[in-house]
Amino acid sequence: MLKTGLELKQQQKLSPLQIQTIKLIQMPIQELEQKVRAELESNPVLDDEPDSDSDTEPRDVSIDAIKEDGDIPAYRLKVNNWGKDPRPEYNTFSVQEGFTQSLQRQLGFRDLTPHQREVASFIIGSLDDDGYLRRDIDSLVDDLAFRANIETTPEEVEEMLRVVQDFEPVGVGARDLRECLLIQLRNLRQSPEVKTAIRIIDECFQDFSNKHFQKICNKLGITEEELKAAFGKIVKLNPSPGGQVDDSYVDQSQQIVPDFILDERDGVLDFTMPRFNVPEIRVNKKYADLLMDAKGSSERAQKEAAAFVKQKLDSAKWFVEALKQRQNTLSKTMRAILDYQHDYFLDGDESNLRPMVLKDIADITGFDISTISRVVNSKYIETHFGIFPLKYFFSEGMENSEGDEVSTRELKKVLQECIDGEDKRKPLTDEQLVVEMNKRGYNVARRTIAKYRNQLGIPLARWRKEI
Question: Which is the CATH superfamily of the domain at 397-464?
Fold first, then answer.
């Protein structure tokens, strides 16, 4: 038996103005300025000079002067340069992007055939965030064939991998920690200490990993002083040459232009936003005449020309309105963050940084969480104690022994202090760090300690042990 019926579905469709606003909100200031310049060049209706046409004052013309009728196809009256938002997720400050670009740039300086360059480029794209290649050679050969349509051999992949391993930062392209350390040691001046360090990593890596110092001395026939000197070279090496993205926000090499500048006077917080001149919409006399002449005209060519002007007018109106909405959204969000983290922004003391998530600011401003995430990503504020990404001020929280809520950033700071003050001959294990944190009033689980320790780039206790 067949059943028929009607089903109503409610579907939200973004307007061109909403799409334009979303795109502008997620842009940092540099991209926004480029976007404004591009719009000024592409849309003749937009103008950033207040008195550019003072000789001929344009007539006040409504964009509704031209009505849609049968002479103008409906599609010609629609602005068709608004596509689906290509990045619904927010932009992030990506170390990996700069890292990969750097390797590709170095590849461009090598004298390779186009085929070799393709293989090497594929290897670069296969590296993990920390700079390691965790794919075996045979798998890479298969991937090159099936995914990139590049026929190669294991020998050629090995050869191109050695090329990549010669790039900066030294150690990139290693397949494991042992190879990473050896690459770095072999790039140093071959002093007696470095040569001994190479022997330790090459011949006694397992004993080195387990800190079995006496076994190493016995196997290599070296003294404890020689071991200490070699160990001093090894501990200065970088076990993660590619770097990693986490929430510790260490200084990066990318150029940063702040979107906000903090102003603190006698405990009162305010901010400014570096801006440009928002162009005012005006219609040049020739466009006004074209619109007025087209009204009631039956000539198809003139009608189509008027439709083109209407498209440009709509586009200009949406763009300027989107700029205003962006300014309002960023300003309102930044004000909410300043108020929420008022005590922190007075002097930058991390112990005053309150737990804060996107929903907290969304509730204050009335914006969606997705809007707040677009605002805080790729945006920076310049303060009297440094420049910070807005994401820095967001963190989850937990209660201390006194029932006060503290941020994860404060917990990490205390954890770092515990590790800095430990006896390096007997470094604290994660279980012992739990006890130390509890003594200071922070009740955290061992798995939480391990998580924060990894995010801070601090190795396990056995790796922190010193002779």
Answer: Homeodomain-like (1.10.10.60)
Interatomic CA distance for residues 414 and 351, integer angstroms: 10
Record the pTM. 0.48
**Cβ neighbour number for residue 45 with a 10 Å cutoff:** 20
Residue 157 CA to residue 120 CA, distance in Å, equals 8
Measured distance CA(239)–CA(301) in Å, rounded: 68
SS3 244: coil
The CA-CA-CA angle for residues 234, 240, 246, to 5°, reads: 135
* 231-256 pLDDT, tens digit each: 888 888 888 887 643 444 444 445 56
b/e code 371-409 from CB counts within 10 Å (16+ = b): bbbbbbbbbbbbbeeeebbbbbbbbebeebeeeeebbbb
What is the dihedral sign for C-alpha 457, 459, 463, 466? Answer: positive
- The secondary structure of residue 63, as a DSSP letter, is G
Contact 446, 430 (CB under 8 A): yes
Cα separation, 91 vs 374, in Å, equals 7
Distance separating alpha carbons of residues 159 and 166, to the nearest angstrom = 11
What is the distance of C-alpha 298 from the center of its chain?
A: 54
Whole-number pLDDT of residue 331? 92
Res. 333 pLDDT band, cuts 50 70 90: very high
